[in-house]
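Lecture 7 notes: from sequence to structure.

We start with a single chain of 124 residues. Read the sequence below before looking at the structure.
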Amino acid sequence: MSLLILILAGYGLANILTFGKIFSGTRQLFVEFFDDSISSVVIAQLSYIFNFYDNEETKELLQEKFTEFCFCIMCIGFWSGIAIHFLMYLSPIGPPSNFFLDACMVSGSSWFLDSVLVSIEKEE
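Now the structure, written as tokens:
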């Protein structure tokens, strides 16, 4: 029962954060922040950690990946799963398992449910 609650709550949160009109301004601010704020300092730190070159192509790639995160149902689903897992400690049901498995379950379920809904909408 707690797994079903986790999946439905995680999908609901991921769907609202990814597609909800109420968060469209927040998503746009997030996108603009990463378009403007991927500075040479961040690029230098990441290039040191991951051993890649600090150039304009790398900066554009990172901006694209960070921007893509705002609209990815699986990415948002993963972090929603972690948040819901820790929120379930407050409920009388308790958390289903460990947080990483819960996050992966919500991420995959969010992707699957979104794919089903998109295919149903295409048929109509």
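Residues 99-123 form the longest helix (25 residues). Keep this in mind for problem set 3.
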